[in-house]
Design a protein that fits this description.
It contains 13 helices and 13 strands. The chain is α/β, with parallel strands linked by helices. The strands form three sheets. An eight-stranded mixed sheet has the order 2-13-3-12-11-1-10-7, sandwiched between helices.
Length: 482
C-alpha cells in the first residue's frame, strides 16, 4: 500500500515475486491406475445430421446383440461390434415463446433443457453436453473444444451458458488454422508421456521449489491487504489473483506441451499422421465453400469427408478431446442420392415424408428421406474406419473414443420422440458395444448425456431435464451401457 495515496499498483503487488511459473503437467491429474496402464485419454465426439431419420429403416428389429442391420445402418455392418444402438430416447422440453420448430429442436438437441426460448431475438436454452464435457477436460488440451460444420443461424446446438450459444465454423481451413496456428501436428507418444507425468509430479511436489506460482508467493501479503479493504475491493482483488493464476496455468501448460510435443516429434506414437490435402485456399468466402455443398451431393460428400478428417486429426494430436460436427443441411439438394420421384430438396422431402402417423406420409418422399439418411450413415462409417485405423499403442483411437451419431430432430416432421442414436467406440473400455438397447418410450436423452459426461470425468448426477422430465426414469441415469 502507498501510505500517501492508500492505493495499490500492480507493479507494487508483483514486485519482488520474481519466480518462474509453476509447470503443472496436466496429464498427471489422471488417476494413478490410469497412468500405470498407459491409457490414452478419452475423446468425445458428436456427429449430428439434419432431418432426423426414418425410424422403421433405422431401428433394429431385435434387442441385444446386433444382427441384421436395418437399411439406413446397413453400411455400418463391418463395424457392428463397435456400435451401441439406443432406441426409445426422447426430448420433452417445451418452448416458452418465439421459436420456430427447427429452433425448438436445435436448442433442445444437446442441452436437453426443460425449457427453451427466444427473448428479443436472443436464444436461451442451457449448457450443452459438449461444453459441459469441455469444462472437465478442456484445460488438458490446446483447445477446450471444437465446433464446426454447417449449423446455420436457426440451428444453435452448443451453449457455454444458457444465453451464450457457441458459433460453428463452416470453413475447414479456418478450423485447421485454429488447431495448428503456431505449432506443428505431432502424434503423441502416450507411453512416454505417462512416464514424464509421473516424473513431473515428483518434481513439482516440493514446497520450496523455485517453480512456485506468483500468486502463492504473494498470497500472505494479499491476505494482509484484504483486511484493509472494503468488500468490493476484496472481491476485485480475489478476481485479479484468480486471473493471474489462470494466465499462469495456461502459459505453463503451453510451455510444457511444447516441450512434450518436441519429444513426440523425435519419437512419435505408432500411428501415421494424415493431414487434409484438400483444404480450401486462404481467404475463400464461406459462400463459395457452402453453395456447391448445398447443390451437389458430390461436393457435399467431399465436405463431410474433409471435416471428419479434421475431427480425427484433432483427436489424434490431442488438440482437443471434445468435438461437435454438424453435418448436412435441411436446405440441401440430393440429385442422384434420391432415386425416386422428382423432388430432391431435403426440407421439402422431410415435410412430405413425415407426419404424425407414418401411414399418412407420402411414401415416395419417405423413401427419399431414407435414401438421404443411408447416404449420411455411409459417410459416418468412413469416420469410424478412420478412427479404427489409428494405433495408439495397443488400442485404437476408436477404442479410446465415444462418438455420438444422432440428429437434432427425431424425424423431418420436427419430431422429438425416439431419436436415431448410436454410440461408436468403447470409450476406453466403459462401453460394451455390439448391441441394441431399447429403453422405455420417452426416456430422456438427458440420461444419456449424464452417462457421457461421467465417462469424461464429470461425476454428475443430473443434466438438463434428467430429473425434471415428466418421463424421468432410472434416477436420471441410463443403465446397461457397459
Amino acid at each position: 500500500m502507498n501510505p500517501k495515496t492508500n492505493s495499490l499498483t500492480r507493479r507494487t503487488f508483483l514486485r519482488g515475486a520474481g519466480a518462474i511459473m509453476a509447470l503443472p503437467f496436466l496429464e498427471a491429474m489422471l488417476p494413478a491406475q490410469e497412468r500405470d496402464q498407459v491409457r490414452p485419454p478419452l475423446r468425445m465426439g458428436i456427429f449430428t445430421v439434419t432431418g432426423g431419420s426414418v425410424l422403421e429403416s433405422w431401428k433394429p428389429a431385435e434387442t441385444g446383440r446386433l444382427q441384421r442391420l436395418p437399411s439406413i445402418l446397413r453400411s455400418l455392418d463391418a463395424h457392428k461390434d463397435d456400435l451401441l444402438v439406443l432406441s426409445g430416447l426422447s426430448h420433452s422440453g417445451r418452448s416458452d415463446g418465439g421459436l420456430n420448430a427447427h429452433e425448438h429442436c436445435a436448442l433442445m438437441h444437446l442441452t436437453a433443457s426443460e425449457s427453451v426460448r427466444k427473448i428479443n431475438g436472443r436464444m436461451t436454452a442451457g449448457v450443452s453436453v459438449d461444453q459441459a464435457a469441455a469444462r472437465v477436460v478442456g484445460d488438458q488440451t490446446y483447445l477446450p473444444s471444437l465446433e464446426f460444420g454447417l449449423a446455420n443461424h436457426e440451428n444453435r446446438y452448443s451453449f457455454l451458458a444458457p444465453d451464450v450459444p457457441v458459433p460453428y465454423e463452416g470453413n475447414p481451413r479456418l478450423v485447421y488454422e485454429r488447431m495448428f496456428r503456431g505449432r506443428t501436428p505431432t502424434v503423441p507418444n502416450w507411453r512416454r508421456r505417462a512416464t514424464l507425468a509421473a516424473q513431473q509430479v515428483q518434481q513439482t511436489a516440493r514446497a520450496d521449489s523455485p517453480e512456485r506460482s506468483v500468486v502463492d508467493l504473494v498470497r500472505e501479503q494479499a491476505n494482509d491487504l484484504a483486511r484493509q479493504l472494503g468488500s468490493g475491493d476484496r472481491h476485485r482483488l480475489e478476481e485479479y489473483l484468480h486471473g493471474v493464476r489462470a494466465i499462469e496455468r495456461r502459459l505453463a501448460f503451453i510451455e510444457n506441451r511444447q516441450r512434450i510435443e518436441a519429444l513426440d516429434a523425435e519419437s512419435p506414437g505408432p500411428s501415421q499422421l494424415r493431414t487434409p490435402a484438400n483444404l480450401p485456399a486462404a481467404n475463400v468466402p464461406i459462400w463459395q465453400i457452402t453453395r456447391p455443398v448445398h447443390r451437389d451431393p458430390e461436393f457435399h460428400a467431399q465436405y463431410i469427408r474433409l471435416v471428419t478428417d479434421l475431427m480425427v486429426l484433432a483427436f489424434q494430436t490431442d488438440t482437443t478431446r471434445v468435438a461437435t460436427l454438424a453435418v448436412g443441411d435441411d436446405d440441401a439438394h440430393f440429385p442422384g442420392v434420391v432415386t425416386v420421384g422428382y423432388e430432391t430438396h431435403c426440407h421439402t422431402l422431410e415435410h412430405l415424408g413425415n407426419s404424425r402417423r407414418v401411414e399418412d406420409a407420402d411414401p415416395i418422399a419417405r423413401e427419399a428421406c431414407r435414401q438421404i439418411h443411408a447416404w449420411y450413415t455411409a459417410l459416418f462409417g468412413e469416420l469410424i474406419t478412420k478412427l479404427k485405423a489409428i494405433d495408439e499403442g495397443g488400442s485404437t483411437l476408436l477404442d479410446n473414443s465415444m462418438i455420438l451419431y444422432t440428429s437434432y430432430m427425431a424425424d423431418g416432421g420436427h419430431g422429438t420422440r425416439d431419436y436415431p442414436i448410436l454410440l461408436a467406440g468403447k470409450a476406453g473400455g466403459t462401453l460394451r458395444p455390439g448391441r441394441h438397447n431399447a429403453y422405455r418410450a420417452n426416456t430422456p436423452i438427458a440420461n444419456l448425456y449424464v452417462e457421457m459426461l461421467n465417462r469424461m470425468g464429470a461425476n454428475v448426477t443430473r443434466f438438463g431435464n434428467s430429473h425434471t422430465s415428466a418421463h424421468a426414469i432410472h434416477d436420471g441415469r441410463l443403465p446397461d451401457l457397459a
